[in-house]
Amino acid sequence: MDLPQLAIAALGGTVSMQARNAGEGVVPTVSGETLLASVPELTALARVDVETLGLLPSASLDFEFLLSVLSWANFQIKQGAVGVVITQGTDTLEETAAFFDYLWAHDEPLVVTGAMRSAAQAGADGPANLLDACRVALAENSRLRGVQVVMNGQIHAACRVRKTDSLALQAFSSPAFGPCGMLVENITRYLRPPTPRTVLPLPQQTTQKVAMLEASLSADTLLLENILELGYDGLVLGGFGAGHVSQSWADVIEKIARKIPVIVATRTGSGSTAHSSYGFIGGEMDLIRKGVSMAGFLCPRKARILLWLLIGCQRQDELASFLLED
Ligand code: GLU
Predict the structure, then answer these.
(1) How far is the centre of ligand 1, averaged over its atoms, from the C-alpha of 129 (Å)?
(2) pLDDT score of 325
(3) pTM (2 d.p.)
């Protein structure tokens, strides 16, 4: 039987980490080929092309590198892959998955996975996550869904997933929405049908800078006051509660929003920003009047990715349509 073609890229992260010498901390050293060797079951499911595109801790991935990974993934689909799997560190996986999702123009799935336990650790979850990710990438029902994150037996939509635990095996969740699917006896099961997606063109420029600040009690306005002078092209704020800031922040934000796009998301970790509930200065109604966009369910980090990509393809005027909630 002709097996489907699957492409896997390793970028680094805990899934690729082990200690060079006993007693030392783990660092990314394990190649994609070695990762692949840890899942011999895969040879019965697919013809696999594997590449090590990086051996980086995920905190050091950047947008330029992600664009090169995307171009590799696009090429794999052109070459006939039915799906693509990317392994990377989990620390920034919620951001990279959203980045890829906004730009993934194929019906075929792109699946991102990693591990919470390093390669040589007892009970390492890397091989299980990789095999699950491959199963999801090979599944017919994964088509038309964009980018999925597969961790610990669950499937999460790229635009919803967050890392919500620093070290636990169950580190990922999609607050307010839940996983969009799971692996049941190795079968890919989705809990919801695919939703229509809007895909952005590749950014023509990559030098734009989008700042992200979190509101906090009694915070000064020094950084905010200097945002424009520092040359930022966009600003994302993790606001209190349903998307609120202090009165002193609101005054400065009004001036900033006249010049560059400003998004306020919630810093709570779950739920949506409000739109028409609170009328105090710094509340969402006041901020909207001042020209701010509310992020809805989009968390601050993903809102920053979205704004960076929109500015990169000169489509920041369409921001509101991307923040509309389903
Ligand atoms: N906990 C992270 C991981 O799971 C650390 C390193 C990284 O994100 O690259 O991979």
Answers:
(1) 14
(2) 64
(3) 0.97
Count of the separate structural domains present in the chain: 2
pLDDT at 326: 52
Radius of gyration of the chain (CA): 20
| Cα dihedral 45, 46, 52, 54 sign | negative
The last residue of a domain, from among 190, 222, 254: 190
> Binding residue per annotation — 91?
yes
Whether 93 and 170 map to the same domain: the answer is yes
Q: Give the residue, by CA position, lying nearest to ligand 1 atom 10.
A: 89
Q: Which helix (H) or strand (E) holds 272?
A: none
Q: How far is CA 82 from the centre of its chain?
A: 22
**For 85-113, how does the pLDDT look when each residue is reduced to its tens digit (9 = 90+)?**
999 999 999 999 999 999 999 999 999 99
Distance separating the N- and C-terminal Cα atoms of the chain: 41
Q: Which domain, by its residues, includes 78?
A: 5-190
Q: How far is the CA of 221 from the centre of ligand 1 (A)?
A: 33
Q: Is the pLDDT of residue 20 over 70?
A: yes
Q: Rounded to whole angstroms, how far apart are CA atoms 87 and 276?
A: 41
**Where residue 119 falls among pLDDT bands split at 50, 70, 90?**
confident
Same domain, 241 and 305: yes
Q: What's the pLDDT score for residue 324?
A: 73
Asked if 66 and 99 sit in the same domain, the reply is yes
Q: Which of 155, 190, 225 is a domain's end point?
A: 190
Residues flanking ligand 1, CB < 6 Å: 12-14, 57-58, 89-91, 114, 116
